[in-house]
Amino acid sequence: MTHSTIPSAFLKNVLHNGVGRYVCQLQRITLSFCKSHGSSRGMRDFIENHLLEFTNANPGVVVYLKPRRHKAPRIVEAITVHNAQMDEICKWVEFMKTRSGEKILRLEKKWHTDNPSIQGIWDPTVNKSTSLNIAEFPSEEFSKFIETEQSTTEKLRELAKNIKNVKMRLSVL
């Protein structure tokens, strides 16, 4: 496919997956392989050594095995793993398991928002004084502690301490 024919979209994610509990998007996987051809050796090794571990760890995923004579090994009819080693097939199966389920598309931009701001993108220097641009550090002026208003937590702690002191005075009387 050429660049112009590859579908494109904005960046998005699967919302609410993991809120409450994680739901695996992979429900079934098909492993096609040849029982005798050498290019399926890695797939056969994966089936013999790692398939039971995978199925025990992922009981919600149905695994289909399709022996095909003289055909290249495939995962879900989409990923050809011709002459791949067992560890490569493990990585592809893990990739399929952890995918979000969204189709793979070319991205329009690296970021996207549904509510764009006319002010631009925020960064840490947005509301800083411009005198910081020409200051030499370390600086006495910018190293001073800035007194701030007492926080709500500090106010509550002080109030609790005062109530405790009043109760102690009343218990002494």
UniProtKB/TrEMBL annotation:
Per the similarity annotation, which family is this?
Belongs to the mitochondrion-specific ribosomal protein mL43 family.
Q: Which PANTHER family match?
A: 39S RIBOSOMAL PROTEIN L43, LARGE RIBOSOMAL SUBUNIT PROTEIN ML43
Chain ranges of the Ribosomal protein/NADH dehydrogenase domain: 35-100
Q: Which organism is it from?
A: Tegillarca granosa
Tell me what this protein is called. Large ribosomal subunit protein mL43
Pfam family name, one: L51_S25_CI-B8
The listed locations are:
Mitochondrion
What's in the keyword line of the UniProt record? Mitochondrion, Ribonucleoprotein, Ribosomal protein
